[in-house]
Design a protein that fits this description.
By secondary structure, the protein is mostly helical. The protein has a domain of about 100 residues. The chain is about 55% helix and about 5% strand. The protein has five helices and two strands. Strands 1-2 form a two-stranded antiparallel ribbon. A hairpin with a 4-residue loop joins β1 and β2. About 0% of the residues are buried. The C terminus is likely disordered.
Length: about 170
C-alpha cells in the first residue's frame, strides 16, 4: 500500500499554497502551484493511498464473505455429525477448544405478505427519491430540505497507458 504523506509535510505545503495565493493574487494558477509547491504530488500520493486502501478493503470484504460461507458450511457438517452420528443424549460436548452443542430455533416463513398487518413492516426513507423531488421542486416533500453543497472527492484511476496518451495529447 502507498505511503501517506506526513501531517507536517501536508501543513508545509498548505502554508506554501496560502503564501503563493497571497503573493500572486489573480495570477494564482495551476502552473504556479506545480512549479512552486509539491501540492499536486501530495494529491497523487493520497489518491494512490486511497485507491490502494479501497482495493484492499474490497478484497477483504469478498474474502470475509467467502470465509463466512465456508464457516456456515462447516457448521452444517458439525450439526449433521452431532444430530445423526452421536448418541441422542449428547446435548453438548466439552472439547479442548470449545464447548460444542446444538441449539434449536424457528425461523419465520412468509406465506402471504398481503395478510401481514402494517405494524410488522419497517419503512425506510428513500433519500434518493426525496433528493430528486426536491431538485424538481424545493417544496415537494414536507419536512425535508436540500442541505448546503459540500465537497467530496472523486478519484477515477487511470487505465494502463492512459496517462501517457493524455500527456502527449496536450502538446
Amino acid at each position: 500500500m502507498a505511503k501517506v504523506p506526513s501531517p507536517r509535510r501536508v501543513e508545509r505545503e498548505m502554508s506554501k499554497l496560502d503564501r503563493l495565493h497571497a503573493e500572486l493574487g489573480d495570477q494564482f494558477d495551476l502552473n504556479s502551484v506545480e512549479s512552486e509547491t509539491q501540492a499536486l504530488e501530495l494529491i497523487d500520493d493520497y489518491a494512490e493511498a486511497i485507491l490502494g486502501a479501497e482495493a484492499v478493503a474490497a478484497l477483504a470484504a469478498e474474502r470475509a464473505r467467502r470465509l463466512k460461507a465456508r464457516a456456515a458450511g462447516w457448521r452444517a457438517i458439525v450439526v449433521r455429525i452431532i444430530e445423526h452420528k452421536l448418541p441422542p443424549e449428547t446435548a453438548s460436548l466439552q472439547r479442548p477448544l470449545a464447548t460444542v452443542g446444538l441449539g434449536y430455533s424457528q425461523k419465520v416463513e412468509l406465506i402471504d405478505e398481503a395478510l401481514i398487518p402494517e405494524q410488522y413492516f419497517n419503512l425506510v426513507v428513500d433519500r434518493r427519491a426525496i433528493e430528486k423531488a426536491l431538485h424538481e421542486n424545493p417544496d415537494a416533500v414536507p419536512g425535508t430540505i436540500l442541505g448546503n453543497l459540500a465537497p467530496y472527492l472523486i478519484i477515477r484511476p487511470m487505465k494502463p497507458g492512459q496517462a501517457q496518451a493524455e500527456e502527449t495529447s496536450d502538446e
